Amino acid sequence: MSIAGELEAIFLYDAHVLATDDPVATKVLADIRDEEKAHVGELMSLLRYLDPNEAELFASDEGEVKEMLEELGIT
Ligand SMILES: [Fe+2]
Q1: What is the spatial distance between Cα 7 and Cα 23, in angstroms, rounded to a whole number?
Q2: For 9-56, what is each residue's pLDDT tens digit?
Q3: What are the boundaries of each domain within the chain?
Q4: Are 9 and 18 in contact (CB under 8 A)?
Q5: 11 C-alpha vs ligand 1 centroid, how far in Å?
Q6: Residues 6+ positions from 48 with CB-CB distance below 8 Å
Q7: Do 54 and 48 meet the contact criterion of CB atoms below 8 Å apart?
Q8: Residue 8, class by beta-carbon neighbours within 10 Å (0-12 exposed, 13-18 middle, 19+ buried)?
Q9: How many C-beta neighbours within 10 Å does residue 6 have?
Q10: Res. 3: pLDDT tops 90
């Protein structure tokens, strides 16, 4: 739920960034949005610590994405 809340905040701040043409508001809101992204990273790290099985599931399909990147010539 905490991660979902952070993601919701990211989308909300991003919508506000896109909705304003004031450069100061854009800068401040984008900074807050990016802080929320950092919070997602912190919570994901906490989740991996608290639930190693979940961490394995997250990592299980990383290989598929790497294969797709290689097919696209992206390394
Ligand atoms: Fe946050």
Answers
A1: 24
A2: 999 999 999 999 999 999 999 999 999 999 999 999 999 999 989 888
A3: 2-71
A4: no
A5: 12
A6: 54, 55, 58
A7: yes
A8: exposed
A9: 19
A10: yes
Ligand 1 centre from 10 Cα, in Å?
A: 8
The rounded Å distance from CA 75 to ligand 1 centre is 32
Q: Which two tokens stand for residue 40?
A: 């997602």
User: Using one digit for the tens of pLDDT, what is the confidence trace for 47-70?
Assistant: 999 998 988 888 888 889 999 999
CA 31–ligand 1 middle distance (angstroms): 12
Structure tokens at 47: 């989740």
> What is the whole-number distance in angstroms between the Cα of residue 36 and the centre of ligand 1?
4
Provide the residues around ligand 1 (an ion) whose CB is within 5 A.
6, 36, 39
Q: Can you give the pLDDT at residue 46?
A: 95
CA 35 to chain centre: 10
